[in-house]
Amino acid sequence: MLRILFVGDFCPINRVAGLIRRGRSAEIYGDLLGKLADKDLSVVNLECPLTRRRSPIAKSGPNLRAHPRAVEALLAGGFDVACMANNHVADHGPKPVAETLALLARHRIRTVGAGMDLTDAQRPLRLRRNGKRIALLAFAENEFTCADERIAGAWPLDPLANIEQIRRARLSADVVIAMVHGGNEYNPFPTPQKVATYRAFAEAGASAVIGTHPHVPQGGEVHRGVPILYSLGNFVFDWLPGPETPMWSVGLAARLTFRDRGPTRVEIVGFRAEAQTACLQRLKGRQRQEFLAYLRFLSAPLARPAELRRYWDAWCAMKGPGVLGRLAGARRTDGRGFLTARNVLMCEAHHELACNYAELLRKKRLTEARRYVARVEALQQGEIPRRSRAARPAGGA
Questions:
Q1: According to the model, what pLDDT value does residue 397 have?
Q2: C-alpha distance from residue 303 to each of 135, 195, 220, 349, 368 (Å)
Q3: How many Cβ atoms sit within 10 Å of the Cβ of residue 360?
């Protein structure tokens, strides 16, 4: 038997950084700490380089980094592997990538999903636990921090290449985990393209597919015997949520148990970051039941493509004007507009949204698409849409 624990985005900044500086890293995890220790292997998505160096690359969006002492928090949480395939790993250029890889190696935390060039970044992490051969692979959407032949960064998402990489890994591993950092931020649902991609990874030989990046929980499914979790939400990320992102502070840890013939159990542990302290607290009792019901609601449309398409069209109706507006900024002379437009064109999530919104305009289907907007907005608040009465917030008071 093999138990692997997965958690989402770890970015130890702001109040969390203060706890680490004061030598109080274990407090970050609150009463979740016991659950983190109950595993044979644990994997966390490290959402930023750990460096003192401030050398932000040209990009749209924030350039994140955390102090190297943040490794103490990873050790306090007992993490064995740091996944570094994400859109912030190279926010400050190649040297902090190298520093982070070396720092984690010194503390015996293994890494996957990033390297000093494309060949280095595309190496699966191979481990042995409990007599099983494990291969971890991690891919990131193509924003600004993916590696190439000369530049350090993340393992790029390239589904055709990734499928072959999964197949090769399967030849010499008993358990193959594919992790993907991508999707639309704050969207309660994966896009139809993401569903097709993750299912293709399962069919190629992945034993499980784990998603991060949307910063909110999404649903999951079992596809041909393979568990797929589309977004774990945030893990530790002390950033003030906006009015449409209250689920920023709610996440899930997933513990998968593997036996000889694939996973036999998927255990979900919900938690939230406390507003006063940013420390984690497990959802218990009624809060836990409401959160699990919320995840079941999010998961149901995965088996109903027409229903998932309605939610996706509604999301595009909500966000499409802003995304297409970014393309108009490409003519700005200061370069920032160009970078924003470039991200719409290059990042799979933004590109898919822009294209679908354009199709809704062309086919004159915006009015139809907006019929599900109220449902999406309710789900963004952590509420299950109901016709008769509002549901209580997932994990809320």
A1: 33
A2: 28, 10, 10, 21, 22
A3: 20
Strand (E) positions, 34-131? 41-46, 81-83, 110-112, 114-115, 125-129
- The reply to whether 256 and 127 lie within a common domain is yes
By the 10 Å C-beta count (0-12 exposed, 13-18 middle, 19+ buried), 224 is classed as exposed
Question: What are phi and psi for residue 218, nearest 5 degrees?
Answer: -125, 175
So what's the pLDDT on residue 396?
Answer: 46
- Averaged over successive runs of 10 residues, the pLDDT of the chain (397 residues) comes to 97 97 97 97 98 96 97 98 98 98 98 98 97 97 96 98 98 97 97 98 98 98 97 94 80 95 86 94 97 98 98 98 83 72 94 97 97 96 71 47
Mark whether 290 and 319 lie in a shared domain.
no
Q: What is the 3-state secondary structure (H, E, C) of 294-327?
A: HHHHHHHHHHCHHHHHHHHHHHHHHHHHHHHHHH
| pLDDT value of position 390 | 40
Same-domain check for residues 317 and 275: no
Residues 288 and 343 in one domain: no
Query: Which pLDDT value is given to residue 327?
Result: 83
Indicate whether 96 belongs to any domain. yes
| Measured CA angle at 331 (ends 89, 63), to 5 deg | 20
Q: By CB neighbour count within 10 A (0-12 exposed, 13-18 middle, 19+ buried), where does 65 fall?
A: buried
pTM value surpassing 0.90: yes
Whether residue 295 contacts residue 302, with contact meaning beta carbons closer than 8 Å, is answered with no
Whole-number Cα distances in Å, 80 to 15, 161, 288, 317: 24, 27, 27, 41
Range of the domain at 193: 2-303
| CATH number of the domain where residue 285 is located | 3.60.21.10
Q: If phi over 0 gives left and psi between -120 and 50 gives alpha, with beta otherwise, what is residue 345?
A: alpha
Residue in this structure with the two tokens 């970078």, named with its chain if needed: 339
* Co-location of 270 and 333 in the same domain: no
CA pair distance 233, 212, nearest whole angstrom: 6
Residue with tokens 């250029």: 93
Entry field: residues in the chain? 397
Q: C-alpha angle with apex 299: 175 to 250, nearest 5 degrees?
A: 85
